[in-house]
Give the backbone structure.
Amino acid sequence: MAAPRADPPAAYRGRFAPSPSGPLHDGSLIAAMASYLDARAHGGQWLLRIEDIDTPRVVRGADDVIMRQLQALGMRWDEPPVWQSRRLALYEAAFEQLRARAAVYGCACTRRMLSGGPYAGTCRNGLPPGRAARAWRFRVPDGIERFTDRWQGPQSQDVAREVGDFILRRADGLWAYQFVVVVDDGLQAITDVVRGADLLDSTARQRVLARRLGFEPPRTLHVPLILDEQGRKLSKQNHAPALDLARPVRTLLRAWRRLGFDTLDVDSADAFWERAVPLWGERYARLAITRPPGQLARGD
Ligand code: GLU
């Protein structure tokens, strides 16, 4: 007789979703590492999605460089990577779904006409006479969006008032990040998003949009950003140096310490992951599945 089997672990699907605007640097490695550790600590899957939708920012070949960097550091994805630029029909279909439900509307406002604050809803009830739609916006429903981020704690945002109806299709015809990330997380059945804290502020709007598309919003964990000496986010724009792959263990351990852990005595990337995954699990897995994904944390 077969030995009784333990309950299967809760399904976990995570992802790392770099924009190929340059090689990974110390800042983006933190997000990659945290998402990888979290997926492995939950016995889950880890997917790689190349977010090359913003074509003017894409640097040719950066996707290959990023994949080589991840491999050199011992990170292995569980499904073939996807490229957003090859998924346009999926975005079109999701957009049509929203349009059929009047959840989007055309907007004629130019950048010059916008204050920079929340969108005032100028085109919400129709375009001004004689004006054509330039961009398409999501009609944000009223209400406060609440969720608990596994690192940053309880969050709430009144998306309609604090953000306003946000853009899904830009005036240049490109799909907006906020839209495609929600469609992809939904279609790829992502249960857990682990990424940098610069995107914490986008999470409430992504959750609202996900539900409108019929998806369960993923749980989130936003890791702190690394700042440079001037206190700016370490980023490709700020010319962060590329990762040192000649010394992978050193590179991994630096990111690991920045995530708040003590250094480890290891001599290979594989040995690093073997030690790091259970340590991450001790600290973060316990917090992970305290409620089903997407369920609002009542009272927080
Ligand atoms: N592509 C985004 C970036 O590189 C990340 C998107 C996400 O993780 O939701 O910053």
The domain at 13-101+184-297 is CATH 3.40.50.620 (Rossmann fold). Residues 17-19, 51, 181, 195, 199 surround glutamic acid (CB under 6 Å). The chain has eight helices and ten strands.
